[in-house]
Amino acid sequence: MRDRERRQSQRYKLHYPIIVSSIRGIGNPDGYHYGEILDAGRYGVRLRLENFGDVAIGTNLQLVCQPASGHEPNNKCLPIAIQGRVVWLDRQGKEFALRYTN
C-alpha cells in the first residue's frame, strides 16, 4: 500500500489516541484495544492498535472509539462510532485500514 497510492481521496494525519471497543469482528478476550487513529479521509480510516487481536481483510467491524488520554478514557469527549470493512492490514505493524460502510 505504501508503494502505490490507491486512495480515492486525501487523507489527513491525526495521531489521535483512542480506546476501541469492538462490537463484533476483532477477537480479543479483553474487549478493549488501545491505540490511535493514524489518518482518516472521506472513505476510510487507518488505525494502530496495541492489542491487535484477530482480524481479517473483508471483516466488517463496528467500533466505538473513545478519545483517550494515555491509556485512560478522556471523559470530556464523546465516543465516536465507526462502521467499516477491513481493506488493508499489517499484522507486524499492528495497523489496519477500514473503508466506511455507512
Explain the overall architecture.
The protein has 102 residues and is mainly β. The protein has a single domain, classed as Thrombin, subunit H. It contains no helices and 7 strands. It has strands at residues 11-24, 32-41, 44-49, 60-69, 72-73, 80-90, 95-100. A 6-stranded antiparallel beta barrel has the order 1-2-3-7-6-4. A hairpin with a 7-residue loop joins strand 1 (11-24) and strand 2 (32-41). The mean pLDDT is 78.
Strand-helix topology:
Elements: E1 11-24, E2 32-41, E3 44-49, E4 60-69, E5 72-73, E6 80-90, E7 95-100
Antiparallel strand pairs: 1-2, 1-4, 2-3, 3-7, 4-5, 4-6, 6-7
Number of helices: 0
How far do the termini sit from each other?
A: 23 Å
CATH fold description:
Thrombin, subunit H
Low-confidence stretches: none
CATH homology superfamily: predicted glycosyltransferase like domains
Q: Strand arrangement, largest sheet?
A: 1-2-3-7-6-4
CATH architecture: Beta Barrel
Q: Give the overall silhouette.
A: globular
Helix content: under 10%
Please give the largest β-sheet.
6 strands, antiparallel, barrel
The overall average pLDDT, rounded, is: 78
Number of domain units: 1
**SSE order, one letter for each helix or strand:** EEEEEEE
Structural class: mainly beta
Strand composition percent: over 45%
Number of strands: 7
